[in-house]
Design a protein that fits this description.
151 residues, alpha+beta, 2 domains, elongated, five-stranded mixed sheet, 2 helices
């Protein structure tokens, strides 16, 4: 609901600015300019608005393992690193809501990052970065990881 109110507010301010900045232009041109100003205002302000209020995107992703759209996920922990539990296959995956993977990521489950504009729910799957030299040899997989997807 906050998403809708924010977009309506940006469009309203844009329309007012369009009508105020060009009073001598035809009405259709002023409405078009107001819509364009509202859209630009929305795109400029949506990122700081979502980050400041720590909001979740409007659109949740498809599960990266079963690729099924879900009506909802079980949120395991909070912002900016959110672990989701898919109700279809009961496995976990992680989304970084601030657009970048933190250094604390364990890479034991699929990892997605949220891309700009954050409100629209555009996701990208990321892989574990290659390490130059593993100090303790290859990492051993636990039994818990066996039930995680390997895509």
């Amino acid at each position: 609901m906050i998403d809708l109110l924010f977009s309506i507010g940006c469009e309203t301010v844009g329309m007012i600015m369009g009508l105020w900045l060009a009073p001598s232009q035809p009405a259709s041109l002023r409405l078009l300019a107001g819509t364009a100003i509202g859209l630009v205002l929305y795109l400029l302000l949506v990122y700081p608005f979502y980050r400041r209020l720590k909001l979740f995107p409007m659109i949740l992703p498809r599960c990266p393992c079963c690729a099924q759209p879900q009506l909802g996920f079980h949120f395991v922990n909070g912002w900016p690193r959110v672990a989701y539990r898919c109700p279809t296959w009961n496995g976990d995956f992680v989304i970084w809501l601030d657009g970048k993977v933190g250094a604390s990521e364990e890479w034991e489950r699929p990892v997605l990052i949220l891309k700009w504009p954050y409100a629209w729910g555009i996701y990208k799957r990321v892989r574990e970065p290659e390490q130059v030299a593993a100090p303790n040899g290859p990492r051993e997989r636990s039994a818990e990881e066996g039930r995680l997807c390997s895509k």
